[in-house]
Amino acid sequence: MARKIVAGNWKMNKTLPEAKSLVQEVLKLSFPPDVELVFGVPFPYLTIVNELIASSVRVDVAAQNCHQEAAGAYTGEVSAPMLQSLGSRYVILGHSERRAYFNESDSLVKEKINIALDNHLEVIYCCGESLQTRELGEHVQFVTAQLDASLSHLSETEIQKIIIAYEPIWAIGTGKTATPDQAQEMHAEIRKWLQAQYGLVSAAQISILYGGSCKPANAREILDQEDVDGGLIGGASLVAADFIAIARAFAK
Ligand code: PGA
Fold first, then answer.
1. What is the CA(35)–ligand 1 centre distance, in A?
2. What is the pLDDT of residue 176?
3. Using an 8 Å Cβ cutoff, are 216 and 236 in contact?
4. Distance from residue 97's CA to the centre of ligand 1 (Å)
5. Are 116 and 80 in contact (CB under 8 A)?
6. CA of 92, closest atom in ligand 1
7. Which of 61, 141, 164, 227 is the most exposed place for a label (fewest CB within 10 A)?
8. What does the alpha-carbon distance between residue 239 and residue 144 come to, in Å, rounded to a whole number?
């Protein structure tokens, strides 16, 4: 069985005092015992958020990016060994905003995945198609090509350290969510891809999250889908009550 995960992606939001109070507010609220929470926070907050969650079970932190090299003259960048030394369990890689605004290609994302795994980080790997690709009916082909390019070289042990987040680009931050059927269709295709590469048992254990305008109002119908194991939540993760309401939407 895949783990149920609700991961917040704060992006470039919150000052330090705001970040602390958001985490503290979230931790006061209860969420289902079979759900794990992740705070995807800006680099400077990793240590402090890690300290705040230290006594909480089923709560972890994620960085939102890392460099593809372990160290070197890359001013302003942050490496996977640094993230590991800060106690970050996860790193989000391949987010469509990184691909669009920082020109990250599938092959660069692959390099980043490799260095992250080498440094014992688990990866929340993002994939997803544009509106144009969906309108052309090529969304499944597009996403499976992304998986081929960035994940297919991983061993069966390595793939278990990957969480896949399907995030249709047209649904991110737009208020347009994929319908439950659209989400299920793609998640089932991703599972099928995993099955073909790694077998039935491994494929069933890998969490596939949905991301893109997921809110308390639409979370339940999406999370109810058979192959949806959780969410990668942007905007709604910035409000404690909304983030937890999404985690609670898992309680059937
Ligand atoms: P959103 O962002 O929930 O604000 O659409 C999701 C994401 O980019 O991970």
1. 19
2. 82
3. yes
4. 10
5. yes
6. 9
7. 141
8. 33
Instruction: Please state whether the predicted TM-score (pTM) of the whole model is above 0.85.
Output: yes
CB atoms within 10 A of CB 172: 21
Q: How high is the pLDDT of residue 177?
A: 86
Predicted confidence at residue 81, as pLDDT, reads 98
Which residues does a 6 A CB cutoff place in the pocket of ligand 1? 9, 167, 172-173, 211-214, 232-236
Coil, helix or strand for 92? strand
- CA distances, 195 to each of 33, 129, 158, 198, 209 (Å): 28, 21, 15, 5, 17
Which amino acid, one-letter code, is at 30?
A: S
Reply yes or no on whether 167 is catalytic: yes
CA distance to 17, 42, 52, 243, 246, per residue, from 48 (Å): 11, 11, 6, 20, 24
Residues of the chain with pLDDT under 50: none
Distance from C-alpha of 81 to C-alpha of 87, rounded to nearest angstrom: 10
Query: Which pLDDT value is given to residue 252?
Result: 56
Distance in Å, CA 99 to ligand 1 centroid = 14
Ligand 1 atom 3, closest CA: 234
Residue bearing the CA closest to ligand 1, atom 1? 234
Residue type, 157: T
C-beta of residue 132 within 8 angstroms of C-beta of residue 170 = no
Number of H helices, E strands in the chain: 12, 8
Per-residue model confidence (pLDDT) at position 232: 98
Supply the angle between the helices 216-223 and 180-198 in degrees, to the nearest 10.
Answer: 40
